[in-house]
Amino acid sequence: MIGEYIKKFRIKKGITQEELGRIVGVTTQAVSKWERGGVPDAELLPNIADALGVTTDMLFGRKNVQSIEDMALEEILSVEREEGFKKAFQILWSMSIGLSKLGSVKESFSFSALDSLKNNDGYHYYSRLSFDEGTVDAKLDTDCRYFFIMPEPVEGYTKMFENTEELAETFSLFSNKDILKIIFYMYSRKNTPVSLSLISAKTNIDVGRAEKLMDRLCKCNLADCGIVETENGTLKTYMFRNETMVIPLLCFAKEIRDEKVINWGVWFERYKPLF
């Protein structure tokens, strides 16, 4: 029965017998033998389950067992949020190793090995994966980590970025030093409405110029403009939106210019152009 479930889950995952054998560390003939009624060695069962994205219980056909996704969810729910972020990154890193399809590197690039990646002499550790099926980019420094994973869209990346004018406008925002001053100031305070005069005072930017820059930020959906009635007339106020994309954008912009780079866990197997 194990062989039947191995075949079922292998087909569902969309990998060949050869690919499964390579991940687990056995021959294609061994996988074929399992699926025809043979039984894998017991010590191989955890690796087979990991490769197929199931539990060992599921290889035996046990019902009502948790999926790996549910187990990961429960693991993160069981701890405080700070520890949850650490566990989430650990899970993502394991996924990254799995996507490389190189089971032989598991020990060398285990999560525990990441703890040795200290930021010495200003160098930063990055992992980059690029396949026809998608891309992964991760910063691995112990004091600052992030992870980006993106399956290849059905129509490729080109269609996502066909509005070059909109992209150019966004990049022009972040290339403006005064706008960066405003962004850092606005996100450094509680997200409540603020007047132009206060923005000007805190950033040392002329009020007239600050208003033009804030209008640009509103146009690009980073900020909202409101009107307050006072005894001296109407007053414009601005409030930044609760935005999560600014940090990744700034991180990637910094990464592109980073000259002190150590590539740690890099696989490029892309045979078609990005765009």
Structure class: alpha+beta
Low-confidence stretches: none
Main β-sheet description: 4 strands, mixed
**H/E topology pattern:** HHHHHHHHEEEHHEHHEEHE
The helix content is: 40-55%
- DSSP strand count: 7
Quaternary structure classification: single chain
Which sequence of strands runs across the widest sheet? 3-2-1-7
On the 0-100 scale, what is the average pLDDT?
88
Shape designation: elongated
Proportion in β-strands: 15-25%
What is the number of helices?
A: 13
Distance separating the two termini: 45 Å
Radius of gyration: 25 Å
Brief summary of the model shown:
The chain is α+β, with helices and mostly antiparallel strands.
Description:
Helix content is 47%, strand content 17%. It has 275 residues and is an alpha+beta fold. A hairpin with a 2-residue loop joins strand 5 (223-230) and strand 6 (233-240). Helix 2 packs across helix 3 (28-35) and helix 6 runs antiparallel to helix 7.
